[in-house]
Amino acid sequence: MKRRILRLILFLAMSIFDDVYAKEFVVSESSDNVPGSLRAAIDGINASSDVDNVITFATPTVTVSSALPTLVNPVMFVVPASGVSVVGSGLINGTALFAASESSLGGLVNGMVVSASGGSKIAAIKNATGAVHISGDMAAALTTTTTSSWYSYGIHAGDGSITVDGNLSGSITATAKTNYAYGLRAVGAATIGGDLSGTIAVTAGTGYRAYGISSDNATTIGGSLSGAITAVAGSYSAYGIKASALYVGTDISGAVTSTAGTYDACGLTLGGSLTVGGDISGTISASALDGDKAYAIKTKSAISIGGEVSGTLTATASGSDAAGLYCFDSSIHGATSSDPARISGSINAVSSGASAAVMAWTEMNLYVTGTLYAEGASAYAIRSGMFNGTGGFTDNTTERVDTVVLASGAVLTGGVYLGDGDDTLMLSGTADIQSVPSLDGGTGDDRLVFSGWSGSFSDAMQGWEHLDVGSGSSLGMDALGSFSGEVSVLEGAVLRPGAAGGRDRIAGSLLNLGLIELRDGNAHGVLTVDGSYTGGGVVGMDVGAGSADLLSVSGAVSGTTTLLLSIAPSVTELAAAEPSLLIHTDTAAAADAFVVQDATDYGPYVAGVMVVAEATGSADWYYGVSGLHDDALTAQALMPVIAGPLEDFVPRFSDRKAYGGSSGVMPGFGGGWTRAGESWSRTVLSGDAGTLTDGTSRFVQLGWDLWYALGAKSYRGAGVFGGTGTQSASVVSTGGRPAGGVEGTNYSGGIYAFLVRPRSYRLEVAAVFGYHELSLNYEMSSPEHLATGSRMVSAEGELQLGLGEGLALSPRLQAVWRHVDGFGLAPLSTGPLMVEDEDGLIGLAGLGLTLNTDCPGWYLVAEATVRVDGSPTNAVRYPLPAVTLSTEAEAVLWGGSLTVGNRAGGMLDPVYWLKAGALGSAGSMESYRLSLEAGVKVPF
């Protein structure tokens, strides 16, 4: 009796409590259909007119035996820290554990576990006639399981949308024994205001249709998709998210995984567009284990990615039709259509039939630095079009523009096909297309651009009307013979031969603003251009001795191209060979269409292009050595100009030849003397740099017999002297072309000695030192000035063979050793050169006939002379090309002289003489020397 009274008091107390605190309902009983149960709390909320109702769980477990009443008034849930588990088992078909009106649910809090199981058509939360709105976060764990048949829902809006105002951070698990498992199923839209950071896992055990999120209208995730969505169908149709469109505010950084036991698996499948505000940095995968149709992302409308695809998209089908990123009725791009969709991660599509890593029906704007991998019977890393449903593809024949950049880091496996329209594909940096069997621009006016990319044009590159080899690129010409469009080599780009010394061909036209590089160490390469050629850039070519790389153009030629030549032979070998054919055109072209600017055009040689125009309108450009620079001719003639008049510096006294007269009369006295002279010469040099030099020289000397001794039958003496002079010469080529000239001043001085026995012999020796200041007037370069020194030793002997009174025969011999210091020059046209030292040993022989009167009196000497130069070679060395040019003058000159003078009669009785001479080469007289000398000596 007492126990019954106590229970009655407790029940009344609780009733009073509920009336006082109408907003809060406490679930204190774990069983169903009793006071304090969850069902009683829901009945109380439905009876309440308050909009701020709370259900507080005071028990860790709640068991529900049948579907709970539909919540019609708002409610929030409060659970203990240890959590609460609401379990409904054995529910009848078509029931929901929580049935709710649109605005009845608040947040489903963390620690709240809701599990519902039954035969079929089981939902954890459902509004059968309208929307489901969770005004806070969805942090609970929802689990539904059908034990006999179809339809398992986590949250189901039967005739409206599903909205979670906050984050979906909890978990939703829906398992159907056969078909139809949904995590979120909305007839309208599905909206998560914050992040989807929780997990959604759905399984259609033996059947089909496992959808993580399914909305007939758009699905919106205001924040990021950082959680995990898993969809598994025992048969077909496993979708992570299926909606008319999907909008994700920031990143997709989580994992979306779909697996179909047979066919049709999609990570994201959208009847409209996909818009991602940030990156796709997570993983999205789809697997059709025993059939066709696996798509990581598949949309009808545009795919717009504000950030990058930096994660991994993978689609695998055992049958056909696998795609990683696929828009079957629209475009793929970045934040706007003018922005590229950036792909830095990995997109993979594997099937046994048709596969495409990235595919769109209309425009694609892509910037790829990641990996695109496709495997299958017909596999494409990038493709325009869509699957045809029979293991192949359907092309869009409507013109539209694809823009694809494969940049550094991009690695493609599978083909590339851009379809109709004026498409552009750029290969940049280290983009790897080694595993691309076909890089096809499709139809339209398509452009393949190489930018900072090194590789070769291959047979795989088809369907392009324009090839742009851009700055920093180096492209091999391997298969350009099959390219009939326009090749443009832009500034800073290089087009290389396909093989060393090979024969390359461009079937189309060629615009060259960069470098066509035929230089590979083999002077036999050929590039043939079937179309037109427009210059403005450079062509690098190897040149051998009589052979060279060849550029042959069939079409029109315009612009000016610079030829950079790599010369294999030495310059002298090149000079000895026939000119090499560099350019051939089938049509007429301007003479300056191809010009040489080459580092091998140095030293003494004039190397350049010679144009030969044919009567048929064709033209050929040859390269070779056409001769020597005029400045080189001047330099080659300079040493002979300096050395030629040196013999005039030797003080030889004509009065010593006159030894006739009365017996015992001594003919000479010591004293001071002066002499002056002028010569006119022509020197012909033959050899490497033959020239003809016409020159004049003048001199004046003063001397003094510093020591003089007179013996009984002879006299001897020695003296010193000094003098100065000028010289000038003009240099012309052997063909008569002026090459330059020389003007100079010289200074000389030295000592001499003599021993004379009248009517018997005379001996004279002299040592002469010279200093020469010269100005070189080049034909093509600025004048140069130089100074050099010379040294000379002369020894002469003469016999007197009397023929009668006043008549004598005088044979003589003279030997002269001379040395002129070498010197360096630097004409602009030839570069630095060195005129080598000149050492010469010259012999002169004369046979004179002397006629004189008594002393004092006049004398006359007529002499026949031969001059032999023992070393007529003249060398000029060019250090940079390591070339030495040598020329030779005439070794033997013949001629004579005529001298007239008087004899001294005593002290201070002046002696005068005048001498005229001529020497010339035998026969032709091409080289000659004419001289005139006058002197006076005053004995004292």
TrEMBL record:
Record bears the keyword Ion transport: no
Keywords: Signal
Record's protein name: Outer membrane autotransporter barrel
Signal peptide start-end: 1-22
SUPFAM superfamilies associated with the record: Autotransporter, Pectin lyase-like
Positions of the Autotransporter domain: 665-940
Gene3D superfamilies documented for this protein: 2.160.20.20
